[in-house]
Amino acid sequence: MFDVHEMEVNFGPQHPSTHGVLRVLLKIDGERIIEAKPVIGYLHRGTEKLFEHMAYPQCIPHTDRMDYVASATNNLGFVETVEKLMGVTKQIPRRAQILRVILSELQRISSHLLWLATHAIDIGAMTPFFYCFREREQILDFFEAYCGARLTLNCMRIGGMPEDVPAGWLEDIEAFCDKFDAAVDEYESLLTTNRIWKRRTVGIGVLSPEEAIEWGITGPPLRGSGVEWDLRRAQPYEIYPELDFEVPVGKNGDTYDRYLVRMEEMRQSNRILKQCIPLIRETPAGDLKAKISKVIRPPEGEVYHSIESPKGELGYYIVSDGKTQNAYRCHVRPPSFVNLQALPAMARGHLVSDLVALIGTIDIVLGEVDR
Amino acid sequence: MNKALLTYLVWPLVKFLIAFIIVQLIVVAMTWIERRLLGFIQARLGPNRVGPWGLLQGIADPVKLLLKEDILPTSAEKIAYFLGPMLPLIPAFVVFALIPYGPPPAFTVTRVNVGLLLILAITSTAVYGIILGGWASNNKYSLMGGLRSAAQMVSYEVPFGLSIVGVLMITGSLDLVQIVRYQETNAWNFLPQLVACFIFFVSMNAENNRTPFDLPEAESELVAGFHTEYSGMKFAFFMLAEYSMMIVNSCLIVTLFFGGWTFGMFGVGLTTSVLRGMGFFGGILGAAIFFAKVMVFMLVYVWFRATFPRFRFDQLMDLGWKWMIPLALGNIFVTGLFILAGQERLMYWIGLALLGATVFYLGRKPAPRKGIHASRVSEA
Known about the structure:
The complex is a heterodimer.
Chain A: E1 7-11, E2 23-29, E3 32-39, H1 47-51, H2 56-64, H3 71-86, H4 94-122, H5 127-147, H6 169-191, H7 195-201, H8 209-214, H9 220-224, H10 231-234, H11 255-282, E4 301-309, E5 312-320, E6 329-333, H12 335-340, H13 343-347, H14 352-362, H15 366-370
Antiparallel strand pairs in A: 1-2, 2-3, 4-5, 5-6
Helix pairs in contact in A: 2-3, 3-4, 4-5, 4-11, 4-14, 5-6, 6-11
Chain B: H1 3-41, H2 57-67, H3 78-86, H4 89-94, H5 115-123, H6 126-136, H7 140-171, H8 176-185, H9 194-207, H10 219-222, H11 232-257, H12 272-277, H13 280-307, H14 313-341, H15 344-363, H16 374-379
């Protein structure tokens, strides 16, 4: 293994930092990676096929289990796609739309917090992990207060929202938002200017904007490469056009810039939350559901709709035959799956330690990759 | 009984045993202190179930590890696998016979006139166990951990040794007792040898495989590095050796740079003669001062562990060979110049100025961050 012989290492599927059951077949020369081949499918549950045999509302809990650390956005993508197929997008009450935005931005923050926690601990800094979980725990409490679940929320319905906000919920979120910016500063104080952190992330896994677009990368990895592409801006849905927020972009396309982008996204999500709370107070309580039939049977046709999930473009493609209550075909475009494809290109020539940083920076969730 | 037998065998053995027990108690205490302190830093509780405030955790852990199944991987090289955890223990324990804990002769186990060299020689053998264990496990991750460990410990042995040379030059002795006696009449060595002290401190972190140099066990990369395949008491032995070596190195830095058992400079304060004047109690006090200083460095280890990310392997080598070794050599050169010029006292002021500058640099308020876009942040 020292000079001419390569060593083959199975990195995963049981490994502390592959974020689930990713297996990377590594060909290494000493510690240098010659080839990294991701092997996926360990968590394949045939979600897309299952959708063909379930009524549309029954599918929603299954979407939770794809990106299981950001289930609210998964729900959002699915219900919006079905609504688009039915042509009822315009009828969704304003209160429900704002509530959807609040839930998905909370989810974005919690997903990014989990990313930061694991990314930092992968690179060896263990303290940010606990600080991130301190705030993430509060967000999960909000979810629990709203729908009873903390992780797999199942919190949206086709045509609206299942419940109105619980008493005191908005005040709690307001209090959280006021403190959250300081919390982000605290995480940054541990990492952003840390020399070791910079040496581990600057220049690692560089993706040029052209490469990123060629690979079909979306979300923070794409924005880290300097492409200002956020579906909340580019193809606005719900009440995003009304909201004031910025799309942070990086410059160098390396792990450090992707880190900065996500840190800034947390701040921006917090900013969105702060704007949403007065807006939802203006809307009448209880106005949460569009008047659509109880039995959901979309007309014949096909539709592709995508939203900005915390990890990138989450798209659903649904074909309806117009006769049954279930989809004829449903395909999911998960951001993690597409982003993961760039891993071999990013990892080549780096060291084994960098692979861990790269898996972290792509921010994959295997439930979503394998579906 | 033969008097020689008593002075050269029985008393040293008794004293070694006492020192050994105290050190092992510190190891046991450290397992609790480290986790409680980490918990405190990380906004959580840490172990608090076993006994009051979790104090008995240090006992519960070894008991648990003793009861664990001792797994021998089928493809492991049996003898080497067995030797792996044993070898690092021997140097880690033997060294405790050489460290002066208090005023001599009562509080030193053995006084060797080349004590420092002997300690360096003994501790550098600790790496064999780790390499052997990593190789014998017949696991690729263990092998990589063992190799990393070998490269790291060999590389940092050099600045570790070189940083001591400056101390030898100004004290003129390899005898640890002599080095401490020099420091109580002059200043503690960290003042004239601030750079050496810094290099020594960084190298001892690296020698011990502690954060930010914990690459050999790098949990997130190599699962657990060289001890991935070890379970039960064999695993505990690796940990025991690691913590013992941490104490050894803390003892060394205290002895070499921070005045050992004394608490005073320029002949003022609790010097050896003052402590001797207090009789046996003075000796105990000296040992207490010594261990208090050691504990400070043990806590710094924990603080580091909570704060820093991990270096990458090549960066670690860069730091060792391109920064630490030239810096240590430069320090030797500059120290030599000062000694030649007969201006040793001037080094205190330079050390003090360097220390002040460092504190000022680290303590300055970070500039407030401007801008929203990550791109702007990235340019800064």
